Write the structure tokens for this entry.
Amino acid sequence: MAKERVKEETTTSDSESESDSGNPQAGRQQTRTGLEWLEELSDVPMGKLPQQLDSQRTRVECKFDAPIHTDTVTYSGAYASMGVDNSLRLDNFCSNFGVKVERLTEEDMEFDMIGIDPALANAFRRILISEVPTMAIEKVLIANNTSIVQDEVLAHRLGLIPILVDPRLFEFAENDTPNEKNTIVFKLHVRCERGGPRMSVKSDEFKWLPNGSEFPLVSEDSKAGSSSKPKTYTSFSCSQDSLPEFSNNPISPMANILIAKLGPGQEIELEAHAVKGIGKTHAKWSPVGTAWYRMLPEVVLLQEVEDEVAEELVQKCPVKVFDIEDIGKGKKRAKVARPRACTLCRECIRGGKEWEDRVSLRRVKDHFIFNIESTGALPPEVLFTEAVKVLEDKCERVISDLS
């Protein structure tokens, strides 16, 4: 029996050697090492990310329950094994970066900022809110207030009224004496006569005092009856309306803002002093009503949606992102008409897995839609350029500190 087994094994080895000699390619394949076999695989192209991995890197995919792939890959060697350099390079940034204005009015602005990191986009938003300077009422000198509005509440309301003047023409007051270069003075004196109807006091009643304060500063000299000119709360060396930047553009607060309501016999007399500041100190110096951004929506139909299903898809979307097109022979097909209007309500993918298989909702990670709503002190396009200057100053300070 042992001799038979030896004979069988010999016969088997002979047959394998004969088959190998008949197929030289198989013989060479057996002699190759496992490392050489792996090196010859070409499933992952070098120097370029696979489509699925690139989509995860550049898109946020919004599923029915929650978004996925929300993180931003910043590590330079994240894709080194595939020959892709993920480091931040200046030449790549300059070639990909762009700003495109979509809407511009006197009060608001919508523009696209393309090719930037979310941290940089958020830096612009925070600077717009809290670090672009404006002029706002800081000190209120109340001579008489018999209205139902308390002095503290009245002063707070006055501070929130936007001042229509370019803050770049003024200096920060800090601890300096109020002068024509750092202070704007307004006067408000209104009275509701007895027997008359109630009256509304609005910001139109403010009067600009280009020569500074008119209220005398109480001091020992004034109490002693000095014959010299009484001092006031400001020290203007010249009239502000004599300066070329204000000669044809008088300073005023935003019009038609309600301050208080007076009954018969009530009166308000005060002076309001406006100085330069930033929103980080107090919200009254914030130049924007709001500044916000969102990532660019991307709506993709994964399969053909036709006829009744297409009409159902159009009806599901509340902002009308989808539309119907005629493809002939009495058939209709859904198409993505207004992807920018998508608010990510996910109504189009509700109703079961079949809808998630038809529609894909995505967000582009490096494409941001910015909205700036100005309070009126500066135009929105000027606010953006001023925010860029503030960010530039911050970068220069960091570079100087490190050098």
Observations:
- The mean pLDDT is 87.
- The longest strand covers residues 359-374.
- The chain has twelve helices and 16 strands.
